[in-house]
Amino acid sequence: MKKDIHPNYSACKVSCACGNNFETQGTVEEIKVGVCSACHPFYTGKKGMVLEAGRLEKFNKKYAGVNYGQKEATE
C-alpha cells in the first residue's frame, strides 16, 4: 500500500435518534443516524412508526393538491 494516502481509522461514536449510543471503528469521530438496530421494526419485531418518512411520502405531502395541468375528473 502507498503511504500517506489513506484516511485515519479510529474509534467512532454512533448516536441514534432513539437515544441508543454505541462505539465502532470509522474514519470520522461521530456519526448521527435516524434509525438503528435497537429501534428498527425489522430487528425489534414490533410494527411501529419509523420516525423518518420515506421519499415517496415526503413527495406526496409536498405536492398534494397540485394537478400539473391535467383536466379535473368530472363524475
Structure overview:
With 75 residues, the protein is of the alpha+beta class. The chain has two helices and three strands, in the order E-E-E-H-H. Strand 1 (10-16) and strand 2 form a beta hairpin. The mean pLDDT is 81.
Q: Determine the number of helices (DSSP H or I, runs of at least 4 residues).
A: 2
The biggest beta sheet reads:
3 strands, mixed
The percentage of residues in β strands lies in: 15-25%
Tertiary shape:
elongated
- Proper CATH architecture of the domain at 1-46: Irregular
CATH topology of the domain at 1-46: Rhinovirus 14, subunit 4
Order of helices and strands: EEEHH
Q: Ranges with pLDDT <50 over ≥5 residues?
A: none
Q: Structural class per helix/strand content? A: alpha+beta
Helix content: 10-25%
* Rounded radius of gyration (Å): 21 Å
Function: Binds the 23S rRNA.
Binding site for Zn(2+): 16, 18, 36, 39
Pfam family, one: Ribosomal_L31
Cofactor: Zn(2+)
